[in-house]
Every structure is written in C-alpha cells, then in structure tokens.
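Minutes, project check-in
Item: structure for the 231-residue chain
Input as provided by the requester:
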Amino acid sequence: MEFMETLDMKKDENLCMFLYAKPGGGKTTTVKFLEGKTLLVDIDGSGKVLSGVPNITRVTINPEKPADELVQFYAYAKANIQNYDNIVIDNLSHYQKLWFMEKGKTTKSGQPEIQHYGVFDNHLLNIVETFKALDANIVFTAWETTREIQLENSQLYHQFLPDIRDKIVNHIMGVIPVVARLVRNPETKKRGFLLSESNGTFAKNQLDNREFALQEDIFKVGDVENDVSIT
C-alpha cells in the first residue's frame, strides 16, 4: 500500500493508448508515427503495411498457440526494454479469436466451453496490466464493433467500440488513459482519431484536452487552444 499527496503526483512519462478502427482502417499504419524505436507483435498479419519503415521491429506469432507466443513476446520485451521506446500489441480482437480457437481444439464439440470465457476475461485484463507496467509507451489495437445502448428515455442507439468481449471491454477501456477510434473523412480522405465520447463512439482522453487528432498527431500529447477537425 502506498500513500501519496496528489499535489506531489506527476503524470506518467510513458503513453498508454488503445487505438481501434475497422479492418484496413489504418490503425497499424499509425504505428509509424511513434517516435523512437518500436517493438510490435503482429498478431493479425497487418504489420506488412509497415514494410520499409525504419526503427520498427516486427514480431510474428504462431497462430496455433497464441497465448504461449504472447508470453514469450512479453518476456523478450521485458528483457530488452532498454532498447525500445514503444511496445505495440496489434491486435487484441484477432488475439481473442485465436485464443478461443485454440481452446476449441481441446473440446469434443470443437467449440470453447462456458468456463473458457471467464478465464479469457481475466487473461486479457492481465495482459493489459502486465504490458502497462513496462517502462515504455504501450499501444494496443483492435478492430471495431458496435453495441446497442438504451437511454433512460428508452431511446436506442448504436455505439462503436473495440471488438472485445462485452464482459471485459468496459474494464479494459477503463484502465487505459486514451481510447481512440480512427475514422476517415470520405470527402477530404484525411484520417483522424476521435478522442471524445459521443452516443456513436466510445472514446476517452485523460492525457490532454484534445477531442480529435489527425492520424499523424495522435502521439503528440498536449493541450490545444483550438481543437483540430478532420475537415
């Protein structure tokens, strides 16, 4: 147990962000805008879009045993953390699918069993907390999905959020300071991240006052006087 006066607290020097977008929306490409050296675990194979980009080490995993491979990646990252400024886990949606596929191989039906879902929820939260503890900037990515939300007046709306199991997604988003959705303006073709929650999008930003950031500026943390837009 540790006691500390909030007046003496300092903001974390390292970033921790959760970036999500539709498949092919550009979340992996965003990695190239990180400053310094980056270690990326490429779970879904999209890391190929970073071909030719300097200062990025791409690690692929065996999809037949995703959990063991991610443990090995973490062990390497921790042992070599002094060589990297950024650690990227790309992406948790596909990792979730691979994890359940692996569990299905151990059952008679070929499908995961009920107990596997609770185990995975704890497992995923442990992954997030364990990587967050590393002395580096940490970036998680995921694909996007939607959920239906009912207001007190019975009005229904659909909200975009990371494609993670319903039972754990709120917890995951709650412990990460920045959750941002990447979108593209169909007219200007510009890509940018939504950093402020709305009925249509789950997003949060506990690091500065930005409500939006262009794709190339997402990692440039700092308050702004006039927030930019994607237009």
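Outcome recorded: The domain at 6-217 is CATH 3.40.50 (Rossmann fold).
No further action items on this chain.
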